[in-house]
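task queued by scheduler; priority normal; single chain, no ligands, no partner chains; default sampling; output format set to C-alpha cells
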Amino acid sequence: MSWPLLSDFTSMLKNPQLGFRDPELKRCTVEMNQLGQPKARSGNFATVYRGFRPNGCEFAIRVFNRRQDERLLHYRAISQYLESHAISSIVRFEYDDQGIRSSADGKLYPLLTMEWVPGSTIFEWIEDHCRDGHCEPLLMAADRWRHLVGELSEHGVVHGDLQHGNVMVSPDSQFKLVDYDCMGVPSLLGRRNLETGLAPYQHPGRNGDTVLFSGLDNFSALVIYVALRALAAAPGLWKTYVDQPGYDRILFREEDFRSPKSSSLHQDLLNSPDELVRDLTHHLFELSRHELRDVPRLDEVVSRCESNQAAAVPARPRSFRSTAFPRTRAGDDRPVPVRPRQSSSGSKPAVKATASRGRRAASSSTLGPAPPSGVSGGASPVRADQDLSPFAEGPSLRSTSAAPPAQSAAEARGEWVWWFVGSAAAAMVLGILTTLVLLLWKRL
C-alpha cells in the first residue's frame, strides 16, 4: 500500500475537525507559518507540527513520512511500557494507529502526539554558558545528566540516540529527551536498532547490525558527561573546538577517537585542570577501542574515578586492556591484550607500576582487584573468583615492606655526643702531628 505524501497530511491539519479522529484533537489549532500553512519541522522518518489545545497548552503532532511497520510496532511497545513507568526525562506520548486522515484517500493513518517541550537544545544551552564563562551551571548540568542516565537504566530504558539535538533544556534547566525512534524498552531488547545514532556520540563499533541491549547508551552518555565536565573546568574549549561555522557537535569529533595521538582535544583534556576530567578522558578513549558491549554504565565509570581521587595514591591510570576486554573491533590493528599474571600471594594480579602526571588510583575497592595495564612473561590461568571488571581496582603501588622504627630522642642525643667527641679527638691528633712536622722542618 502506498503511503500518503506529507502535503496530504498538511492540508488536513488546516482543518483539525476533519483531519483528526480523536474528539479532543478536533478542537485544537495548529501553528501556521507566514504563508498560512501548518509550520512543519521535518525529520528523517517523521514531521512535527505544534498544536494548541483549547486551554492554551502546547503539544507536538508527529506524522510519519513513510510506512515502516517495524517502527510503528516499536512505538506501540514503548507507549504501553511508559504507561506504567514514569521517567522524569521522558515526555509522555500517545500513539494512535488511526489518528490522522489523509486528504488523498480519506483513510486514517498512525499519529503520535506528545507534550511540547519548551526551551533550547543542550547545544544552544551549553554555547550560551561557555561564551559567558559560566562554569557552575555546566558543572550542575553534568550532575543532572548523570542522574538522568541512571534513571533510564533503573527503568530498563535505552534512548538509543543520545546527542545534542535530542536533549532539550527547559527554562528551569531540566533535561528532557525527545525523538524516540531508537528507544528500547525490555520487550524490544534483542531486536535490531532501527537507526545507528549520530557520530561522534555513538561508539565507533555501532552499526546497522547492532541490536538493542541495556548498555546501548553507555558510551554516548559518557561522551556527553565528559564534555560537560571538561567545559565546566575550561569553558574556553568551546571557542577552540566547537565555535566554528557549520559545526554543531558538543566538543568531540569522529577523528578524535580515530586518532587520539594526533588529537589536540585529547591532549587538552588529559591536561584539564579538573583531575576527574583527566581520568574520565583516559577511560573514554580506551573504551572507544573495545567492544560496545564492554562499555560500563556511566555511574560505574564516574564512581571509579571519584574513588581513585579519594584514595589519593599516585599511580598511572590503569589501561582498559585487560581480560575484561578480550576483543578488539574489526579492523583495529592494535594488539589484543594478554591475560593478567596472577600473583602467588593472593587473588590480586601483579601489576607493573609506572609513573604518570596527575593520576591517582585507589589501593582497594569493593569492586575487587583490577587487571594490570601491562604484564610481562607468560600468562597463567585466572581463578574463577577473580574480578576482572574493567573498573576493578588493582593492588596499591606503595611498598608493603615495614617502615624502620622511629629513633628515640635519647638515642639521637647520644649519637650527637659521640660525633662531637670524635671530631674533637681528630682535631687534637691533627694539631699534634702538624706541630711535630714543623719542629722537624726547623731542625733540618
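post-processing summary
- The longest strand covers residues 93-101.
- The chain has a mean pLDDT of 80.
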